[in-house]
Every structure is written in structure tokens, then in C-alpha cells.
Write a structure and sequence with these properties.
The complex is a heterodimer of chains A (112) and B (493).
Chain A: H1 2-20, H2 25-46, H3 67-98
Chain B: H1 7-19, H2 26-54, E1 57-60, E2 71-74, H3 76-96, H4 102-106, H5 109-125, H6 129-148, H7 153-184, H8 189-199, H9 204-220, H10 228-231, H11 237-262, H12 270-291, H13 295-316, H14 319-350, H15 366-380, H16 386-400, H17 404-429, H18 446-464, H19 466-481, H20 483-491
Classes of the chains: A mainly alpha (112), B mainly alpha (493).
Chain lengths: 112, 493
């Protein structure tokens, strides 16, 4: 199972990196969110995908899955959600003011 | 257990939350901010005293013993950085009164300022790797807001790049944390150190160490600094003083912590990488500092050079060099804040950031001029001033450990730092007075000059009292060189 997950994460990373390297700002933001998806799956996978009950004591199971990575993922999800929404609004503002979404044209001149 | 440790984080957090309610009352905002920073300075001072007299202080959050709960640890290194941060933060705050503009002050400038300090103080104090990530994010998100606040074209453009780079490096940080958790199964730094030592740092752990090195280098501007000169030149001078003095130093602190506490078993791999990256940083930074004739760019490349210099001290990992690293870090935080504030004066008075269009300011602004000159000497490391002792110790360590080429590069970089800053001094203050600004600027107010002068006095005292500060720096360096002390303090119960 870990192998398939690793391949899936690898694909997410590849697509994410490809999108981040593109010209359009929206594709870059999509790329970063794919990268964060990959990272969260990676956190889940690295705690070994053993079978076990959900981490609820009421389940009275013999073994549970590792609860720590789930908490880490939850933290990381909200952080990246906040940053992504900031990034989107920033891109919108930049598009309004600078009139372009082409990252190549955002080099900046000596004086403006 | 020492509940005082949470105060450097709690005071700014609480202040920031309260300040949000007083959006339009600038007087209250300024007053509360000042009070909160002074309180933080006091808290840091008391913790420093406790660490000096009783040894490393820890705080187990919620009473959970490590490695299960989050632990805050104040060893000499973190508490010295904490104190310097709050002192530098205070003067940057005084300088930002009136210089950042009323529009910014009304739009949550001060809460963001406090949140930035929350992130920085938390990063210095935490003893948990994932908590470090969270504190980094608190710091970075406030820094995004502080850079873009005002919303000019340049700010929007540079913030896009800054935020993208930091999202990528945070992503890598989480990946590195995930790998490390997968291999050793813990996140507490002291416990990590033990388990990495048990597992033996080879193969996969070295790869993870290098991944951490890349992450923190991106944050600190060590070799991967391509984002720094642009982003740090767009916000107002008070903000770039704060960034230049503090943000990169947090990355450096994380590098120092990880590579003295966790991954110190295979220096042939990790530390020699750091050494070469440091050399490349110094050399490339030197090129940048000579090449540009824009005062912001020159100051930013000076930040990069000093990052390289401190990382070189870390790479040597000898006793003398580590003391030097702590000493130089403290000096550099104060001196860079002062340099950026004085640079802000120059730009304010001449109305331009280009050296060619300045000149002859010494006649009307001798105080600013001579402070700038002496700060330049201090940053280059001229003997009685504060940069000297740190540089001397690092270079001494470099010679002891036979890093001759790199020590040579570090020495040459000091010369060029001096050249680049004196060039700014000569073209801004000497020569003929250039055409005056079309709308003559308001003179610098007394209070701003006073905040610069106070930082200047602190820097001078650090130079003349180096013997006294060295005792603290040596203790910090000693703890860094003996991770067992840190581990014992955290895991003793």
C-alpha cells in the first residue's frame, strides 16, 4: 500500500513542480496546492499505513492507527489553506494593479 | 518547569489580539505596543538571569512530559537571541512611529508587527520540530502582510515572489518532518537527538539532514538567497530593518539548532556542505554588494554576506568558532537593524535610493553621517567595535580546523563589506550637495534620531563590553557544543 501511495505522491509532486515552473500565476497557485496535497499524503504515508481502528477510544479495538500524523496534517492543512487564500487574493490584487498574470512580466524595471 | 518561558510568546500574542479592536486609535496602538515590547524585554531579561544562575529552563506545555507534549526550552543561545530580538524590535517600533505612514498604522500594522514577534520568539523557544514549523508559519504569514501592506506595484510584485518561495520551502519543511518522523518516530528535538544517535546518522538520515539544510537555507538566505534582495527592498525602512535584523537570523538559528543538536554525527557530509554553501554565499554576496549602486540592494547583500559568515562559523564546529557564532549573531542583529534605519534616514532625506543622486549630506546631518560611518566599521569588524570579537573567534576556529581557503574568503569578504558600506558613506555624505529635492523633506524628528542613537549606543557597548558579553556567548557556545546538556535538561524526569 505504501508503494502505491508513494507513486501517487510522486505524481502529485511532479505535476506540482511542473505547474509552479509555468508562466501563468493561476497555474503556479494550483501547483502549490497540489504540492501541499502531496505533502499531506506523505505525512500520512510516513506513519505506515497499518490497518487499525480510527483513533477513537470508544472503538475498543486492539490496535489503532497512529493519531499523531493526523493531527499534524490537520494543522498543516489549515495553515496552507490560510496561505493559499492570501496568495489568491494577492494574485487578484496584482492582476488588478499590474494588469498581467504573466510571471515573466513581473520582473520590474529600474524605476517606476 | 518554569512558567515564565511562555511569556515572550504570550505577551505579543495577547497585545496583537487586543490591538485588532483599536483599529483607528493610533495613540492606543502605539502605547500598547511599546508597553508590550518593554514587558517582553523584561521577561527575556529575567529568563536570561535564571538561565545564567540555574541552567537550562524548560516548560512542559499542559504538564505533559516530553517527548509526548510540546516543550519550551530556554538555553543560553535562545535566551540571548530572545533578548536581542525584543530590544531590536523595540527600536524598530520607535522608528516606525510616523515613518510607515498613517494609512499603514490604521490598517493593522501594529498587530502584524506583534504577530511577527510571536513567531520569532516561538521559534527561538520551542523544543519541538513541528512546533517550530508552526512558529515559522506565524512569522512568515505576518511577514507577507508586512511586506505587502500599502499595496504599491513594487510591493505586490515582490510579495508574489516572496510568498511563492516561502510556500515551497514550507512544503519542503513538512516533507522533511514527515521523513524524519517516518524514520525515528518522534518530533521532540531532544528525543530526536537521542534516537538519531542510536540509529546512527548514515544513508537515509543524512539525506533528511540535507533536506533540512535546504529548507533552513532557503529561510536564512544561505546560498539560496535569490529571493532576498528584491523582497527586502520594497517595504518601508522600519519593516526592512526588522526583516534584515531578525528574519534571516531565525533561519540561521534553526540551522544551528538542527546541526548542533540533531544531525551532528556525520560532519564530513553535512558540515562540509554548509561550509561550501557559506563560502559561496559570502562570495556571491560580495559581488552583489559591489555591483549595485542602490542603497537598499547594498544593504541587502550585506545581510547575505553576514549570513554566509555565521554559517561558516557553524560549519567549523569548534569551540572558539561556536562562541564566535553566538557573539556575531547578537552583534549582527543590532548592527543590521541600525544600518537599515540609517539607510532609511538617507533615503528619506535625499528622496532617492541611488548613490549617484546623493551627496554632501554631512554638512547638514553630521550625526547620521558619523553614525553610519561607525556602523560600517563595526559591521566590517574594526577592533574596538562590536563586530570584531565574533569575527576574530570564527576566524580563529577556521584556522584551528585548517579551513584555510574559507577563512581567507571570509577575511576578504570583510574587506569588501567595508568597501561597499564606505562607498555608500562617501557618496551620500561627502562631495558636493546634489540638487535638493523638489519637495523638501521634513527633517528627521528627534525621536527617530534618538531611537537610532540608542541602538548605536547599544552597539558601542557591545563592542567595548565584549569581555562581559563573551561570558554569555561562551556559555551559549558551550551548550551548543555539548548537546548532552540540552538533552538532560529536557528529558531528565
Amino acid at each position: 500500500m505504501e508503494l502505491y501511495m508513494s507513486i501517487a505522491i510522486g505524481v502529485l509532486f511532479t505535476v506540482g513542480v511542473y505547474l509552479v515552473l509555468s508562466k501563468s500565476l493561476l497555474r503556479i497557485i494550483l501547483g502549490t496546492s497540489l504540492l501541499t496535497h502531496g505533502i499531506h499524503l506523505l505525512l500520512l504515508t510516513m506513519s505506515r499505513l497499518k490497518t487499525g481502528a480510527a483513533p477513537l477510544l470508544g472503538q475498543k479495538a486492539d490496535s489503532y492507527v497512529d493519531p499523531l500524523p493526523q493531527a499534524l496534517i490537520l494543522t498543516s492543512i489549515v495553515i496552507s489553506f490560510g496561505v493559499t487564500s492570501f496568495f489568491f487574493v494577492l494574485a487578484y490584487k496584482a492582476y488588478q494593479k499590474l494588469g498581467t498574470d504573466d510571471i515573466e512580466q513581473l520582473r520590474g524595471k529600474e524605476d517606476e | 518547569m518554569n512558567n515564565l518561558l511562555v511569556f515572550p510568546l504570550l505577551i505579543p500574542l495577547f497585545t496583537a489580539a487586543i490591538l485588532i479592536f483599536f483599529k483607528n486609535n493610533i495613540t492606543i496602538q502605539r502605547g500598547l505596543n511599546t508597553l508590550s515590547l518593554l514587558a517582553t524585554v523584561c521577561a527575556a531579561g529575567i529568563i536570561l538571569y535564571q538561565v545564567k544562575t540555574e541552567g537550562i529552563q524548560t516548560l512542559h506545555m499542559g504538564g505533559w512530559l516530553p517527548p509526548y507534549g510540546i516543550v519550551f526550552v530556554a538555553d543560553m543561545m535562545s535566551v540571548l537571541l530572545l533578548l536581542t530580538t525584543s530590544v531590536v524590535g523595540t527600536f524598530c517600533l520607535f522608528y516606525s512611529f510616523g515613518t510607515v505612514g498613517e494609512q499603514r498604522e490604521r490598517n493593522y500594522y501594529y498587530p502584524f508587527f506583534q504577530f511577527l514577534l510571536v513567531g520569532i520568539n516561538g521559534s527561538f523557544l520551542t523544543g519541538d520540530l513541528f512546533n517550530l514549523f508552526v512558529c515559522f508559519e506565524v512569522m512568515l504569514i505576518s511577514s507577507y502582510a508586512l511586506i505587502v501592506l500599502g499595496g504599491t506595484k513594487r510591493q505586490l510584485r515582490e510579495t508574489l515572489k516572496y510568498i511563492l518561495i516561502n510556500i515551497l520551502s514550507s512544503t519542503l519543511f513538512v516533507a522533511a518532518v514527515a521523513y524524519l518522523y517516518g524514520v525515528v518516530g518522534t518530533l521532540n528535538m531532544a528525543d530526536l537527538s537521542l534516537r538519531v544517535a542510536e540509529a546512527g546518522q548514515d544513508g537515509v538520515l543524512n539525506v533528511i539532514a540535507v533536506l533540512f539544510m535546504i529548507v533552513f537555507s532557503l529561510k536564512a538566505g544561505l546560498f539560496l538567497f535569490f529571493w532576498l534582495p528584491g523582497s527586502y527592498s520594497v517595504p518601508p525602512a522600519a519593516v526592512s530593518a526588522l526583516f534584515g535584523a531578525l528574519l534571516t537570523k531565525v533561519g540561521l538559528y534553526a540551522l544551528i539548532r538542527t546541526f548542533t543538536l540533531i544531525f551532528y554525527h556525520d560532519p564530513a557530509v553535512t558540515h562540509s556542505w554548509i561550509a561550501w554553501m557559506a563560502a559561496a554565499t559570502m562570495i556571491l554576496g560580495v559581488f552583489g554588494a559591489i555591483a549595485y549602486s542602490d542603497i537598499y540592494r547594498i544593504m541587502n547583500y550585506n545581510v547575505i554576506i553576514s549570513v554566509g559568515f555565521i554559517a561558516f562559523g557553524l560549519a567549523i564546529s569548534a569551540d572558539a568558532a561556536m562562541d564566535g557564532v553566538v557573539f556575531y549573531l547578537l552583534h549582527d542583529m543590532v548592527a543590521k537593524a541600525l544600518l537599515f534605519i540609517l539607510g532609511g534616514f538617507i533615503v528619506h532625506l535625499t528622496g532617492t535610493s541611488r548613490l549617484k543622486e546623493m551627496g554632501g549630506m554631512i554638512k547638514h546631518h553630521p550625526a547620521v553621517g558619523w553614525m553610519f560611518f561607525i556602523t560600517a566599521l563595526a559591521i566590517a569588524g574594526i577592533p574596538p567595535l562590536s563586530g570584531f570579537a565574533g569575527k576574530l573567534l570564527i576566524l580563529q576556529g577556521g584556522l584551528q580546523e585548517k579551513y584555510y581557503v574559507l577563512t581567507g574568503a571570509a577575511l576578504v569578504s570583510s574587506f569588501i563589506v567595508l568597501y561597499s558600506l564606505v562607498r555608500v558613506f562617501m557618496s551620500a555624505f561627502w562631495g558636493e550637495e546634489k540638487k535638493p529635492r523638489t519637495n523638501p523633506p521634513a527633517l528627521i524628528s528627534k525621536s527617530h534620531l534618538l531611537s537610532a542613537a540608542s541602538l548605536f549606543i547599544i552597539m558601542m557597548l557591545m563592542g567595548f563590553g565584549s569581555e562581559w558579553i563573551y561570558r554569555f556567548a561562551a556559555e551559549a557556545g558551550n551548550t551548543l557544543m555539548n548537546p548532552a546538556d540540552y538533552i538532560d535538561a529536557v528529558l531528565k524526569e
